[in-house]
Write a structure and sequence with these properties.
The complex is a heterodimer. Chain A has 8 helices and 9 strands. Chain A is α/β, with parallel strands linked by helices. Chain A folds into 2 domains: about 120 residues, Response regulator (Rossmann fold); about 80 residues, no CATH class. The two termini of chain B are about 40 Å apart. The chains are: A alpha/beta, B alpha/beta. At the A-B interface, strand 8 and helix 8 of A face helix 5 and helix 6 of B.
Chain lengths: ~230, ~350
Amino acid sequence: MIVGEQKPLEEIMGLLGDARKVLVVGCGTCVTVCFAGGEKEVGILASELRMKSKLDGHPMEVDEVTVQRQCEWEYIDPLEEQLKEYDVVLSLACGIGVQAMNERFPDMLTLPGLNTTFLGLPEEQGVWEERCQACGNCVLGLTFGICPIARCSKQLLNGPCGGSQNGVCEIDPDTPCAWQLIYDRAVKLGRVEQLLEIQPPKDWSSSRDGGPRKIVREDLRLVEAE
Amino acid sequence: MAEERTNPTPDLQAGGNGYKSGSNLERVLRAGHFAVTGELGPPQGADPEVIRRKAHLLKGVVDAVNITDNQTAIVRMSSIAAGVLAMREGLEPVVQMTCRDRNRLAIQSDLLGAYALGMCNLLCLTGDHQSFGNHPTAKNVHDLDSVQLVRMVAELRDDARFQCGDEIKEMEPRFFIGAASNPFGDPFDFRPYRLAKKVTAGADFIQTQLIYDIPRFREFMKRVVGMGLHEKVYILAGVGPLKSSGMARYMRDQVPGMIVRDEYVDRMRAALKGIPKEEKARRRKALRSTGIQICIEQIQELREIEGVAGIHIMAIEWEEAVRPIVEGAGLLPRPTDFLPSPEIGGGAGGGGQEYE
């Protein structure tokens, strides 16, 4: 899932500037599951904004709404009429939701209330870890299901750098070395020889490096391309 | 022993003797001499005098000198530019190149330039993470990893092709290709295999991480020799003089991928025994001479290990220590009958003389 984290209140207040009427829009999907931008967090943030703006001497009117998925037109289209009452919208969705709102409602400025952090999973209650960088060319089949693009600090494809020690990455003792994990798994599966093959330079054109990405599935399109 | 080495991709272009680059370092190793390389860290500024001063301390003491590339992710003078300055002082550089700061376009372009300027040794590295340095908010590159970098440089030389496959029509850069190995990193069992990958990719020589755990290095080399890698690549064992017990402790406890045995920490501490705290100069001298003495003993011990073809001395910001170490280890004078000459030298510039 997409994991996000709320921006500091001070930064949000700065973004909102002198807006007097604000609609906070949550998202019921990924950011709800990671406790960053669902209905509950929208309620808490809206209260904080009301209190803070009152304390600052410029009280804001803050309303709340949470849609099922802020990244799909059909879920945000019903907001159109409601939005007209506000100076600005504060989205607690990921960056995709924020952009969807701005794209769909070009007359209304939607500001981000979250930092979209990564694609990952909850390792345990309250702890999320990155697992995928969406590089567009999955290497998990070569690395026994552990991604060196997302989990190695240097995105190495041919084994650990010299900074791997006692199972942890050189950048942080709380970050496991992805290549230690890959090697251990290879040993367990009896497939170390697979790691002896030299992996050629990665084709990054499927990643962000190739420019913004797009998938077109003609078999699914309702309108045929011209 | 060294004369019997196999030359995996014999090449006759660089002087007709099967030299790959014709560099002094390559010649020394090929002739079977126990090689000595040093390290020269470029300054955090644009003063060429720093390079000249350090170069004079190393001239005639080492066969080639590594010029670090933004070491520990701290911005310093470019390794290629500093290499040119070192060459003007009569030193042969080993240009270090990391994957952290450049993509495959920038690396290849810089290598064409480095070769045109007369560099002919290259050390291919992953690079320390930028979070250690003075620009921790920088974006890193890692388009290639060090194994892929070695292969790319080998293909530039041996196939005269760029990484994309395009032919190099005018003049291909012919580097003597180095790679690093850290016998103290984990997983330990994979380290010899990683070295093997670098050899398969085209490495001609290997320089290891600083060794302060000889038993572990011995075990590593046993595996390396068991795999026959020492017959395919020249392995230079990395050493460095300790300046204090604090430095030894710091490296033991704080530097990822390093192992420092307590005996070194203890010996450095013992060096101060009986010298009062206020006698700073005496303490300093005692520490430094102990650091140098330990390093000499290490070299003598490492030299006896099968498969070790030379020594790589990293006297970080203490270049003055290199001469007494090399001398103390009985490795002076350095062989001089292999000095690079314009006729058979590696780079298009054919050596440093041109830049004086």
